[in-house]
Amino acid sequence: MRRTILFTGVFVLGCGVALTTMQAQMAKKVTPADGHDIHVVAPHVVDGVVMGPYHHYCKAVSAEILECLIYESTEPNALMTQVEYMINKSVTRTQLDLSVWNKYYHDHVMEIATGRVQVLDRSPEEAAAIAEAAKQTDGIIFHLWWPHMAPAPNGEVKHAQAISHKYLTEAEWKGPVGSPPRSSK
Questions:
Q1: C-beta separation of 101 from 173 below 8 A
Q2: Under a CB-based contact definition with an 8 Å cutoff, are residues 42 and 118 in contact?
Q3: How far apart are CA 45 and CA 38, in angstroms?
């Protein structure tokens, strides 16, 4: 009898702990930092120097925008040194001046075509689908930690660039979204 009461008490206590743990997990508030689980690796040009490869952890924040938190490594304590916004060309090509695009943005069709961009931690089919979706976007990268590898950033923000970046002509700028530029300056 004592064993039955003891077992019942332990069982009820265990169920209570399990239920409390499940409720705590379910009650965990989702934050903007959650969901950056598209892992991409690619080098960048920062202040005229090829650097990286950088680890991008991305998520869709809207139908038109992907946001990537960018780290120098995959170590749990790696510093986030860059942020990239991947914005649908239907937005960038209608809302920006060509001079602004040429200075700060890059075309993901060109970058992916170099073979330097790799989608990690996904099946080959998923990686191909992610790359195809990325080709519909232009990227802008903000390098936040400057001077690079300094003990503390000095507050200056640099604009990193894709190695493949080419200045677009007016005709290329107005061309079909998702098509590669035909020439460069």
A1: yes
A2: yes
A3: 22
pTM of the shown model: 0.81
Q: What is the mean pLDDT of residues 126-134?
A: 96
Q: CA 44, 117, 57: angle at the middle one, nearest 5? A: 80
Secondary structure of residue 18 in the 3-state scheme: helix
d(CA 177, CA 137): 9
What would the two tokens of residue 143 be? 């390098």
Looking at the predicted structure, is the pLDDT value of residue 75 above 70? yes
The answer to whether 138 and 131 are in contact (CB under 8 A) is: no
Residues 6+ apart with CB under 8 A from 64: 87, 88, 90, 91
